[in-house]
């Protein structure tokens, strides 16, 4: 259970979180994963001692489907496969730059496409009131906690699952995944860290805090029983007293989905730009062997993500539907996806040009073969006519054989070669 503490910012209650997307090497069959397969995967995780010593491995305790406003009809792709909750007891001290922080809650949401989201709740006290170094200090504390207490456990889990026959039925093989990152290449830090403060108290408390947290919009968004300031890195939520716990659950479900989506877009931007550089610098043989094999699957998967995300936004219920839409709006997610689609369209044009070049090359090869056959036929025809001109007697009537009469075989061949070169020149100029 999370601890609510008095702060030095005149808030009645405050909860302080960091949210950090992580890279993993786990990729699941999210399109067709069943509850039985998910159960086998969770059971496989629970058999790993290094994991269970530090984490409680649980199914997502969120209501999916339809029925009440607590249910979200999310597609499987946007549902966490499992949630790993750290066993922190009374708290885990973390020292960063001579400042001490205490983590009182932490959980990891495992998603498809090698993405996980780390939530850490920090104890609030007088020092939790935002200062100039609030962003960097809290981000650094999150990195320290990840490196010292999470990274090694995740690596052990991923190695163990890669050898578990039961888990492998739910995991996709590496060569079946277009954006896979091998375990040895994973970074030792999160992709980024966002910070969120959830408070109760009078309106003046939220206004004062919004001025101290950097990067927040000047005007909040009004929700049922809550006001929200969402920036690119910091966010603040002022909640009606007595609803903090319920709102925190709704906020976590929304933030998990939105961070997962934002992480996918960020990675696709980087990957497609890298693929574009490869396309520009690689030869046709390299493109055919190493690039096209995965690039077309990436572009197809990007369309799949778009469709699944639209379905997820439609399936959200209660306050989570407007809250997710507001977070996306604050992060300009539509523009970000538009930029990713622009890179994808650019790459599709490159692929089309590659196939056109291949088609033209194949056409030239076929024309060269036909020309070669024709040249042999032309030589043969000229030699036959030359031979026939010698065999036939002069009948007094001019004819085509008279053209070859009196000429040597070499002269006839040179004439045929001249005609052939002339035809090849015309063909070349036409192709050019």
Strand fraction band? Answer: 15-25%
- List the total number of helices: 11
Query: Quaternary state, please?
Result: single chain
Low-confidence runs of at least 5 consecutive residues: 1-8
Structural class: alpha+beta
Overall shape: it is elongated
Write down how many β-strands occur, each being a DSSP E stretch of 2 or more residues.
12
Radius of gyration: 34 Å
- The succession of helices and strands, N to C, reads EHHEEEEEEEHHEHEEEHHHHHH
User: Percent of residues in helical segments?
Assistant: 40-55%
In short:
The chain has 432 residues and is an alpha+beta fold. Helices cover 52% and strands 16% of the residues.
Folded structure, characterized:
The chain is an alpha+beta fold. The protein has eleven helices and twelve strands. The strands form two sheets. Strands 1, 2, 5, 6, 7, 8, 9, 10, 11 and 12 form a ten-stranded mixed sheet that branches. A two-stranded parallel ribbon has the order 3-4. Helix 7 (284-315) runs antiparallel to helix 9 (333-391). The longest helix is centred in the C-terminal third of the chain and has 59 residues, at 333-391. It is elongated, with a radius of gyration of 34 Å. The model is unreliable at 1-8 (pLDDT under 50).
